[in-house]
Design a protein that fits this description.
11 strands, three-stranded parallel beta sheet, about 15% strand, TIM Barrel, about 280 residues, alpha/beta, six-stranded parallel beta sheet
Length: about 280
């Protein structure tokens, strides 16, 4: 098997928090060995299988649409100590339709859990999958958040234009998936400041989700590179940034779940890692 290249960490204080980049990766030869099919273990709270009964059909969605509750936009980079050995895989964008399809295939077949941050501008990738995503949200396998509609640099367009783009994506989420993305907001490119946080919080997006580790897949990577990154960053409470933009990430997902299991870590949604939004419907 090929040698695993060292993982280097470069931290730049561009937006008030470290922007983490990785260099290097593993050789392609490490991808040749096939591993047994992953299933979410019973000790890791597997998602319940849907029961098609009249009562189940009327169960409110965990992200049901309610009026927004304004508040401070709190920046979050990792889960609390009380999260135990839970980690959250968070998947942004969706420029690659086949990648979105493959990710959902893996989540459905393994019982794994992820958080999705889609952009409405990539609706061609997400809208054909809306029915599947609604079921996965209802079963607790997927949490859906808001990544803005157009994926612009928020601090460059300013709080007013940003707020309009955020609301446009919320409207698209509600129309497409019949849920709300609140209170979860991830800034495109991780670009944010206090004005952006306040604008998000004023519209009910009170949890500004950054990350503690990344597979650096906003450009093409090998599956081996992505798996090395997971091995490096995965730890209790981690929030790991990924993208639905290139096939390697989607193809590596079953092996990512297996790697987390071997490390004794439990993949969960952000709602599980951080706690659900308070019920404001009463």
């Amino acid at each position: 098997m090929g040698a695993v290249a060292a993982v280097a960490v470069l931290v730049a204080a561009a937006t008030g928090m470290g922007v983490v980049m990785m260099a290097g990766g593993s050789t392609e030869g490490e991808q040749a060995t096939a591993a047994p099919e992953y299933r979410q273990p019973t000790t890791a709270s597997p998602a319940p299988k849907p029961v098609r009964t009249a009562s189940a059909a009327t169960t409110p969605s965990p992200q049901r649409i309610t009026p927004p509750v304004a508040g401070p936009g709190t920046v979050i980079t990792e889960g609390p100590a009380s999260a135990g050995r839970k980690v959250a895989l968070t998947i942004d964008d969706g420029t690659c339709a086949s990648c979105v399809d493959r990710i959902l295939d893996v989540v459905e077949s393994t019982g794994g859990k992820v958080t999705l941050f889609p952009n409405g501008v990539y609706g061609g990738s997400w809208e054909p999958q809306a029915g599947r995503i609604r079921k996965l949200i209802a079963s607790g396998q997927v949490t859906l958040g808001n990544h803005t509609y157009s994926h612009q640099v928020s601090t460059k367009i300013g709080p007013t234009a940003f707020a309009a783009d955020l609301q446009r994506n919320e409207d698209w989420i509600q129309k497409t998936f019949t849920v709300t993305g609140r209170p979860w907001f991830r800034p495109p490119y991780g670009d944010r400041n206090a004005s952006i946080d306040d604008a998000a919080g004023a519209r009910g997006y009170r949890k500004v989700i950054m990350w503690s580790g990344t597979v650096a897949d906003s450009q093409p990577r090998s599956e081996a590179y992505i798996l090395d990154a997971i091995d490096y960053w995965a730890r209790p409470g981690a929030i790991i940034l990924m993208h639905a933009n290139y096939p390697a990430t989607a193809n590596a997902l079953p092996r990512i779940f297996r790697k987390l299991e071997k490390k004794g870590l439990e993949p969960v949604t952000l709602a599980e890692l951080l706690g659900p939004a308070p019920d404001t419907s009463r």
